[in-house]
Write a structure and sequence with these properties.
heterodimer, A: alpha/beta, Transcription Regulator spoIIAA, 5-stranded mixed β-sheet, 3-stranded antiparallel β-sheet, B: alpha/beta, Heat Shock Protein 90, 2 domains, 7-stranded antiparallel β-sheet, 13 strands
């Protein structure tokens, strides 16, 4: 198995970013302008990333997240990188706990998006919009860590290979450029500490 | 001078009567709102009284007069809720305004003006410490409910900033509705003097509705279908998510805009889900009532 680390790992602490980006008054991640400011700050940090980047968006210090902010910081962030394909960007949201979860699920589903979230120490979940097959295969990938993509990839767009390809295309799994293996984002995250 | 009598009990239902009366007043250089007989008032009543005063002020550019309640309890309560600070610039107050006592307050959220996003942050910051205890002790909600409550407040206040294009007010307080419901409730009231739903959504959606476009259809479009004036598909979920959370808590939410009101009505409430033909009043009034759990 190749080293699954040909991506630039970037860790972004949103709690820290809120303090730096907007006035100290804003101790919570609420209102759309605050969310927009935080998203732009994240995008600015990612601007210098390489062609492929894995970003860890840390919400651990965020106690309150409203729907408007979740739409900006989670849904629009994902959407912009998927729409524009400026880079192969992969995102993992860390510290997603019950107070955030509903808001994140709602904004993702509304935009037909999904995201990988660390919902507890070492526990990863797929949140948002996904088919039953995508959810099942993502779980299998999460347990296995990697899947041999090239063999599966020969099967075209149908079946497990097609589903795996969709997970990669949606930024929910990473395909190694050299071997074509598909790697769970949680495995890549280990290099971020 | 035209005199308007403020009802003795001023809550959401009797506020309609006051707003209808204000809307029907002929143009006059001076108005007087007579609140001498006010005996009970909730956040809908207080915020609505300010809105009524603002409407009369804006007609002629002269502050209407406000006769203070004769009851010192009611006047003192208005002071604790921060009514008189907000009344500056809206009313010329007749009588001595009671002083607002310092120290611990039993108020959930004093009347707070909302003009910009930073006001929304202040509201949420202010309510955090008090809401937890009130939601848990009086409504029997779980400790985590303060998060959803704060999210509701944030989204409902942002509605003013994003759509009204005019300032507004928010207030919240808990009451024991022993006779009406046999339970404690929290009442949240938000009101602005802006352009209302029909005008806010009109440019984007009126053409599709044709002759059917009205205050009621605009409210249905936003309240039931999540339509918004922004083409961005991520918008318009605030009201939808507020409705969902209020339903989870078996609460009631209603929005009056222009000449119509739409409501999500729980089983304990007997109001109609939609009302048309109310007196046309500027802006939007949102009322949320969260009842205690039945086992609380």
């Amino acid at each position: 198995m190749n080293d699954p680390r040909p991506v630039d790992p970037i860790a972004i602490d949103v709690g820290d970013l809120v303090q730096k980006t907007v006035a100290s008054l804003y101790s919570h991640l609420i209102t759309r302008p605050t969310g927009r400011a935080v998203r732009l700050a994240i995008e600015a940090q990612l601007a210098d990333a390489g062609d492929q980047a894995l970003s860890l968006i840390d919400l651990s210090e965020v106690t309150l997240l409203d729907f408007s902010c979740a739409d900006e910081v989670v849904a629009k962030l994902l959407q912009r990188y998927q729409d524009h394909r400026r880079t192969d960007a992969y995102f993992v949201f860390r510290g997603v706990t019950e107070p955030h979860r509903d808001q994140i699920e709602v904004v993702l589903e509304r935009q037909s998006l999904a995201a990988v979230a660390e919902t507890g120490p070492g526990r990863f979940e797929l949140l948002g919009s996904r088919s039953e097959e995508e959810g099942r295969l993502w779980l299998e990938l999460e347990e296995a860590g990697t899947m041999p993509g090239r063999e599966n990839g020969e099967g075209g767009d149908d079946g497990a290979a097609g589903t795996l390809q969709r997970l990669v295309a949606r930024g929910l799994a990473y395909r190694s450029g050299t071997a074509g293996d598909v790697v769970a984002l949680s495995r890549l995250m280990r290099h971020l500490g | 001078m035209k005199v308007v009598s403020v009802p003795g009990n001023l809550d959401q239902e009797s506020l309609d009567q006051l707003l209808d009366e204000v809307a029907a007043l002929p143009d006059e250089t001076r108005y007087l709102l007579d609140a001498r007989h006010l005996r009970w008032v909730d956040p809908n009543g207080m915020v609505g009284l300010l809105a009524a005063g603002a409407e009369l002020r804006d007609r002629e550019g002269i502050l209407p007069r406000l006769e203070l309640p004769e009851s010192s309890d009611v006047a003192g309560y208005l002071a604790r809720m921060g009514f008189f600070e907000e009344a500056r610039g809206v009313f010329e107050v007749d009588g001595t305004v009671p002083r607002r006592r310092s120290g611990a307050s039993d108020v959930l959220l004093e009347i707070t003006s909302i003009e910009a996003n930073q006001d929304v942050h202040q509201v949420v910051d202010r309510v955090q410490a008090r809401a937890g205890a009130i939601l848990a002790n009086k409504l029997g909600y779980p400790g985590t409910a303060v998060v959803q409550f704060s999210v509701i407040l944030s989204e409902v206040c942002q509605n003013i900033v994003e759509h009204a294009e005019a300032p507004g007010w928010v207030a919240a307080q808990s009451y024991n509705w022993s006779r009406r419901l046999g339970r404690w409730v929290v009442v949240i009231s938000v009101m602005d003097m802006g352009r209302g739903f029909r005008r806010s959504l009109g440019e984007e959606h009126a053409a599709r509705y044709g002759d059917r476009w009205s205050d009621a259809t605009a409210l249905e479009a936003a309240f039931l279908h999540g339509l918004t004036r922004f083409p961005d598909s991520g918008r318009g979920q605030g009201i939808q998510q507020i409705r969902r959370q209020v339903r989870r808590w078996d609460g009631a939410i209603s929005i009056r805009s222009g000449s119509a009101r739409i409501a999500q009505v729980p089983t304990w409430d007997d109001r109609p889900p939609i009302q048309e033909g109310l007196a046309s009043f500027p802006g939007t009034q949102i009322s949320i009532i969260l009842p205690a759990r039945e086992d609380a």
